[in-house]
């Protein structure tokens, strides 16, 4: 059994709504390549991006403000 890459999933299921959780040790380094993948496969309108990292979500929102995201842990705590 082989786990597909995100790019393989996006290529195989174009336009399918997806909830994608970003996990990264160095958040800023993953944002640009992730947004580029979303653009390459025209998936911005079809994804909701989630993360348990406030920093990562805030960075992602700055790079792709038109993409839906979950609330960050800080935002949930403020509710």
Structural summary, described in words:
- By secondary structure, this protein is an alpha/beta fold.
- The protein is built from 4 helices and 3 strands; from the N terminus they run H-E-H-E-H-E-H.
- The chain has a 3-stranded parallel β-sheet with strand order 1-2-3, with no helix packed on it.
- Helix 2 (27-40) crosses helix 3 (54-63).
Main-sheet strand order equals: 1-2-3
- Fraction of residues in helix: 40-55%
**Sheet bearing the most strands, described?**
3 strands, parallel
Low-confidence stretches: none
- Mean pLDDT across every amino acid position: 93
Strand content: 5-15%
CA radius of gyration: 13 Å
How many helix segments? 4
Count the E strands.
3
Please tell me what the overall shape is.
globular
Protein structure class:
alpha/beta
Distance between the termini: 41 Å
Write down the secondary-structure element order: HEHEHEH
Secondary structure elements and pairings:
Layout: H1 6-12, E1 18-21, H2 27-40, E2 47-50, H3 54-63, E3 68-69, H4 73-78
Parallel strand pairs: 1-2, 2-3
Helix pairs in contact: 2-3
What are the defining features of this structure?
79 residues; three-stranded parallel sheet; 4 helices; 47% helix; 13% strand
């Amino acid at each position: 059994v082989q786990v597909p890459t995100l790019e393989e999933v996006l290529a195989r299921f174009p336009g399918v709504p997806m909830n994608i959780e970003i996990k990264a040790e160095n958040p800023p380094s993953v944002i640009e390549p992730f947004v580029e993948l979303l653009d390459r496969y025209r998936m911005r309108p079809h994804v909701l991006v989630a993360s348990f990292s406030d920093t990562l979500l805030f960075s992602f929102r700055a790079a792709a403000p038109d993409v839906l995201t979950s609330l960050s842990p800080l935002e949930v705590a403020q509710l």
